[in-house]
Structures are given as structure tokens and as C-alpha cells.
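Support reply, case 0932

Customer input (verbatim):
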Amino acid sequence: MLEEAIQRLFIDHGWSLSVAESCTGGAIASRLTKIPGASQYFLGGIVSYSNEMKEKILHVPKKLFQNEGAVSEEVVTAMVKGVIEITGSKYGIAVTGIAGPAGGSPEKPIGTVWIAVSRRESVPLCRKINLEGSRSEIIDLTVEAALLTLLSYTGSC
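Our regenerated output:
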């Protein structure tokens, strides 16, 4: 399982991890903490579902929502930088997207998701993915993609 591989890797290297979640509503944190011993590396997560919470807690600039929209590379980049800064973790994951069944547009249809992973003081790796399925399927696929992206970013995949 991905979460077990992440846990071993992070504990072995003495790394810490935090997450900022929007469209997954805490599902990444939940999956990581199902494994006993997660507290040895996982510092916590912030579920910032609304733009206001992203702005107030993660310090995402309001102009990004106005110029790019909440589901964008710029916003997910600001989210991952914010969660690393707030928690002091070595690594961070952030996700924002449209899980459906409503909320999509022709430019950003349901299933549009942005993932960012980063190491403190490094350039984040951002990925845009387009998923299909029910709301729960899109959330599950987003969690899987975020964890795979983290492993890839650390050079462990």
C-alpha cells in the first residue's frame, strides 16, 4: 500500500509531512493515519474547503482566486507552500479540484484536479489530472494520485 511505503520512507529519513486538502475533504490525512505509527512523521492536515479558509489559514492570496480560480496551479502551489510554512514540515501535499456532481464548467469540468507536492524551500511539483467517475471515485483517485506524486517527487517511485 502506498501509505505504508510513504510511512517507511519518511520515518527512515526522519522527514515530516503535512497536507492541505480541498476537494478530498481530509481523505489524504485519513488514509495516511490509518497506519499505526503515522504520528512519527505525519504532522497534520488542513481541510480548506472554501476560498476564505484557503486565504485565512493557508495565506493563499485573494487575487489568485479572482485571476486563476480556486482550481488552478497557482492556488495549489500557494496551498502547499502555506501548509509547509504553517506546520514546519519537511514535505507537503496540496490538492484542489472539482469532485462533482456539480460545480464544473467547460473550462474546468468535473474531475479537474490540481496536485502539488513540495519540500521545504524547494520548487513544488504540480500536476493537473482529469478524472472521471462518481464523487467518491474522483476523491479516491485523487488521493491515490497525490500519494504517487509524493513518492515520485521524493525519488522513491
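We compared this against your earlier run and they match. Two observations from our side: The chain has one domain: 2-153. The domain at 2-153 is CATH 3.90.950.20 (Maf protein). Please reopen the case if you see a mismatch on your end.
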